[in-house]
């Protein structure tokens, strides 16, 4: 199944038109349905980080788990910092650990803290595909990593043959949203054994709106 850029643009326009006005800016999402794939085989499952050419449309929430130089670098960028001491406190409460995992879109962590993070937060971050980006403890400039994360979406194929991904917000230009969607579709195709032949259908929708099929 191949997707013409103009067909994607048309689906984006229709999804926006059919979405009722809400008192918040809705996210635009894409759902890619797959076929002929056996997800009982681990080799058919995958995780992907896709850098959207036109960004996510809104700032993701990023937390940095670190002490020392990395923590200072994070503070200079105005990021939330969780120290090793705070990490141990959070670990005492499953409720607080779950809340932390839900609150942030991405985590950056200093390498020496990864064993603790895996032990204390792994079971909360792993299933949400939010394990941290790991940096050296001496890193003093996090800006390139943060700028990349601001344009990144993480997606995964796990137990069901469908992949969901946010691709922007409803106020973004239709063409830019379409290019973001195309980038996600192409990244998924690149991971499939038989490429586009394993894509059954693709839909686009806003957070609260109906799904609109992209015509192949």
From TrEMBL:
CDD domains: Ribosomal_L1 (cd00403). InterPro entries: Ribosomal_uL1 (IPR002143), Ribosomal_uL1-like (IPR023674), Ribosomal_uL1/biogenesis (IPR028364), Ribosomal_uL1_3-a/b-sand (IPR016095), Ribosomal_uL1_arc (IPR023669), Ribosomal_uL1_CS (IPR023673). Coiled coil: none annotated. SUPFAM superfamilies: Ribosomal protein L1. GO terms for molecular function: rRNA binding; structural constituent of ribosome; tRNA binding. GO terms for cellular component: large ribosomal subunit. It comes from the Archaea. Gene3D superfamilies: 3.30.190.20, 3.40.50.790. Keywords: Repressor, Ribonucleoprotein, Ribosomal protein, RNA-binding, rRNA-binding, Translation regulation, tRNA-binding. One of its GO terms (biological process) is regulation of translation. The keyword Transcription does not apply. Part of the 50S ribosomal subunit. Belongs to the universal ribosomal protein uL1 family. Protein L1 is also a translational repressor protein, it controls the translation of its operon by binding to its mRNA. PANTHER family: 54S RIBOSOMAL PROTEIN L1, MITOCHONDRIAL, LARGE RIBOSOMAL SUBUNIT PROTEIN UL1M. This is Large ribosomal subunit protein uL1. It comes from Thermococcus paralvinellae. The lineage of its organism: Archaea, Methanobacteriati, Methanobacteriota, Thermococci, Thermococcales.
């Amino acid at each position: 199944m191949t997707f013409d850029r103009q067909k994607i643009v048309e689906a984006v326009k229709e999804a926006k038109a059919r979405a009722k006005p809400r008192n918040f800016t809705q996210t635009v999402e894409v759902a890619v349905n797959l076929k002929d794939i056996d997800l009982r085989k681990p080799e058919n499952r995958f995780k992907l980080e896709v850098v959207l050419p036109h960004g996510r449309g809104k700032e993701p929430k990023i937390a940095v788990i670190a002490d020392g130089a990395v923590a200072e670098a994070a503070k200079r960028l105005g990021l939330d910092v969780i120290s090793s001491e705070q990490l141990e406190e959070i670990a005492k409460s499953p409720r607080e650990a779950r809340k932390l995992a839900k609150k942030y879109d991405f985590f950056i962590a200093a390498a020496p803290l990864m064993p603790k993070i895996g032990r204390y937060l792994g079971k909360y971050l792993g299933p949400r595909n939010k394990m941290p980006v790991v940096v050296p403890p001496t890193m003093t400039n996090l800006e390139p990593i943060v700028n990349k994360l601001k344009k990144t979406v993480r997606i995964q194929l796990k137990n069901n043959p469908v992949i969901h991904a946010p691709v922007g917000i409803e106020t973004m230009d239709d063409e830019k949203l379409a290019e973001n969607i195309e980038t996600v579709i192409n990244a998924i195709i690149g991971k499939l054994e038989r490429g586009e032949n394993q894509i059954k259908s693709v839909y686009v929708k806003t957070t609260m709106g109906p799904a609109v099929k992209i015509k192949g």
